[in-house]
Amino acid sequence: MKLVSYFCTASALALTTVPAFAQEQSTGQTAAGQTAAGQTATGQAAAGQAPTTDPTDAQDIIVTANRTESLLSKTPVAISAITGDGLRAAGITNPTALADQVPNISIDRNSGGVQVTIRGVTSTDVSERGDPSAAFLADGVYIARPQAQEVSFFDVARVEVLRGPQGTLYGRNTTAGLINVISNRPTFDRFGGSVDVGYGNYDACQASAAVNLPVSQNLAFRVAGNFDQRDTFTRFGPQVTGRSDPFRKNLSGRVSGLYKWNSGNLLLRGDYSDIGGHVFDLLPIRNFYADTPTGIDPIRLKRSRRAYMTENANIGWDLYRRNYSWGIGGELTQDVGPITVSYVGSYRRFKRDEEDARISPDAALAYHYSYDGHYRQQSHELRLATNGGGPLTLQGGGYFFKEDSDIVLKGLIGTANPGRTGDGTTLAFFQDPTKAKSYAFFGQGTYALTDSLRFTAGARYSHDDKSRVGYTVTCASFFTCARPANAVPNNNASATFAKTTWRLGLDYDLTPTTLLYGTVSTGYKAGGFNDGCERGTGTGCTLTADALYYDPETLTSYEAGIKTRFLDNAVRLDASAFHYDYNNLQLS
Predict the structure, then answer these.
(1) Which candidate among 79, 85, 127, 216 keeps its CA 20 to 30 Å from the CA of 133?
(2) Superfamily for the 2-583 domain
(3) What does the domain layout of the chain look like in residue ranges?
(4) Which of 588, 462, 463 is nearest to 530 (CA)?
(5) Which region ranges are annotated with the description Disordered (predicted)?
(6) How many CA atoms lie within 13 A of 566 on its CB side?
């Protein structure tokens, strides 16, 4: 399938009146009083390097969209960036609220996970075998599971949102773009800290604290924590007897340590998040539209907000989310003459334990659903980049990612469950293991043709292996439904995909405050498989290869843009026009 789409976007920011946006912030103070500038895409500054700024850029911030430091206004990429101060000023405490401040982006909840849409491009497959169209990163580390992405923002230096395919420098699953949340690093200047507390309606409570502890001129630590709670917006009727509040209850912490020497530095991080609450985010469509025959446009009902937000199906069990996520990671940077060598490594685990409900079409009955999953991922990236002067800058390296998981998903589908007995036809999925492995090699260079004109070219080779072994079974009871013993898996598939993506670009300083740019770039998202197994591979396998497997999603993007400032830098205008040419767009 091929899809061609045209879009254009523009945004204008009056810096004196829109305090939430990073564009009107300076580099931004962290809790310890240290500027957040000088961080790479993984949050780490190249040793011995500092970005060049001029007085006209006093309102600018440093971003790392091209994996090197540059001023936001001088970066030839469609990007929005918000500092930690900007997030607090706008009341943005979690990823779903970013859409209120960043254009061309929508972030929704889907099956307990975060679904990111950038420029209308998205993926609704949030299962263990699915891939997003827009990547979500924390300090440059790809977070694979959408259910692990809705962690509250705290002690954040900035959030960068890149639009369009980022297949060269960031790799797979970035056909729509990406979000990179960059936390504050320890600083060496002084002991300090911060506390932020907020309270709102729906019993919303947000509290964050951070402490920066310099031990010496070369060693510093930082500790940060967050509590985030809010009740549900949904109003439940008398038939909902299970517990439903609070909707969100997250508790998170992070510890980081930074050690530096003359030619490099080492940053280590550890984090933990308890992601809890009583999550239920479904409402009957009959709350909004009158029943109409097929082929006739539905009629929107004029009701009160209370009527829209009411759910009264017979939910007789607690709706809860008891998930947790933790990870350890490190960033090592070392200057070796004119080359800076950097390594970013991470190991993460995510546990998913949820009880949910699905509502019948007539909005009267509720069906019990449960999720139990364990996910493990690791990633490693080695990067080499030039750090000297001259007209040519180069970077390149290799990347490795691996994830494996085992899950149990059960849904009571045959009989509505008003209580806790669990009797009735149950559809269950026992998948163990599901595996994904990817490696890539990449390189990109920029050459200054003149003082004002620059040319960029880059390419990346990505290789992906995917597999899954598991069962889809039907049981007579919800709670006693178990994995079949000695049965042949009826979900059994494996596939390999590979793709080379590339990027070409020109950017030109029309004036000291106006940048013009144009790019042609490609993106890639690995293919995959549906439930089932291929005919001839085992007992009960009936699917053809075409029915079981689907191809990679690829995209070629043509984009031109302008970034300018006027009225004595009081107003900034960013505008872009782009043309997307898709092949094999993956839809669910």
Answers:
(1) 85
(2) TonB-dependent receptor, beta-barrel domain (2.40.170.20)
(3) 2-583
(4) 588
(5) 32-56
(6) 9
